[in-house]
Predict the 3D structure of the following.
Amino acid sequence: MYKQSAYTLNFALTRRQFRSTVFVVIESSEQQTIAQLAQRLVGVYPQVDPTHVSRIVQEEYARFDGRPIRDFIPLFVERKANGALTKLEASSIITEGARPAPQPSVR
């Protein structure tokens, strides 16, 4: 029967800890990317209330909970949120707290 040495057991624990640390870092990075995406879309859609933009981004992000492959999720969230915000802006539904659209400068 194979006996595990203290070194082998220590290595296994370290490896497990490393995997969980990597997962937390990736998850944190993904959440930062989604927050940055929401901020960018607030600038792109000034007629829409910023809290509404953030809510749409979070709703789209929540659709991907539990998916194992996470590489393209921010891209998919951006596409879906852009579509929803474009429809919202086109339907002229502007909520309270929205900023007026920037006016082009005339020289």
The helical segments are 6-44, 50-62, 73-90. The radius of gyration is 22 Å. The domain at 29-90 is CATH 1.10.8 (Helicase, Ruva Protein; domain 3).
